[in-house]
Amino acid sequence: MSLDKHIEKVLLSAEVIAERVAQLGSEITSEFSGDSDPPVFVGVATGACLFLADLVRRIDLPISIDFIRADSYGSGTVSNGSPRISFDLKLDITNKHVVLVEDIVDTGNTVSCLIEHMTLKKASSVSVCTFLDKPSRRKVYFKLVGDGKFYSGFECPDEFVVGYGMDFAEQYRNLPYIGVLKPEYYM
Ligand code: 5GP
Ligand code: MG
Ligand code: MG
């Protein structure tokens, strides 16, 4: 696509992504297949949109899907550190298993705020499935709820990435791969 001209390097191609998402899908399917109560997949808007759409099509269980929004980022590349829920769930998750679907866990602020929120809503377990993980940048060490597990698609180097749902100033979410922008576009 002609948008490719904005990208300095591709870190994860669409093919590599598809393969890993399929693996995650079967892993999560096996984890919950003995359970009579299938989980609620909660996509964290907007960044998790593409990952959620691909992931749930690889889950072979009668799951439900909902969305939540937690805002902490301005339009730049640095978090302001204190996320708040700006759009809440429609479904009642009391006594439900929740799988929080995230684009990336960076400092951990957002995911820890969301886990706390799901705890207050009395989810019976909270797992986190993040497409990317930047463990080198972690500031907050979150605890999963109940039998909750942490699933991660790929470890991400300490670079600001875009694509596959992830933005810079609300753009580039529609790229089908993960890449780093050319410096002249970070403006
Ligand atoms: P945290 O609260 O863990 O610091 O940040 C989580 C959010 O920051 C992510 O959901 C994502 O929206 C944003 N973020 C963190 N690192 C990156 C990155 O490399 N690229 C983009 N586009 N967003 C990021
Ligand atoms: Mg996010
Ligand atoms: Mg963002």
UniProtKB/TrEMBL annotation:
Phosphoribosyltransferase domain span: 17-168
Enzyme class: transferase
Top-level taxon in the UniProt lineage: Eukaryota
Cofactor: Mg(2+)
Alphabetic keyword roster: Cytoplasm, Glycosyltransferase, Magnesium, Metal-binding, Nucleotide-binding, Purine salvage, Transferase
GO molecular function: hypoxanthine phosphoribosyltransferase activity; magnesium ion binding; nucleotide binding
Pathway(s) annotated for this protein in UniProt: Purine metabolism; IMP biosynthesis via salvage pathway; IMP from hypoxanthine: step 1/1
EC number of the protein: 2.4.2.8
InterPro entries: HGPRT, Hxn_phspho_trans, PRTase-like, PRTase_dom
Subcellular location: Cytoplasm
GO BP annotation list: GMP salvage; guanine salvage; hypoxanthine metabolic process; IMP salvage; purine ribonucleoside salvage
GO CC field: cytosol
Catalysed reactions, semicolon-separated: IMP + diphosphate = hypoxanthine + 5-phospho-alpha-D-ribose 1-diphosphate
PANTHER family: HYPOXANTHINE PHOSPHORIBOSYLTRANSFERASE, HYPOXANTHINE-GUANINE PHOSPHORIBOSYLTRANSFERASE
Family: Belongs to the purine/pyrimidine phosphoribosyltransferase family.
The protein's name: Hypoxanthine phosphoribosyltransferase
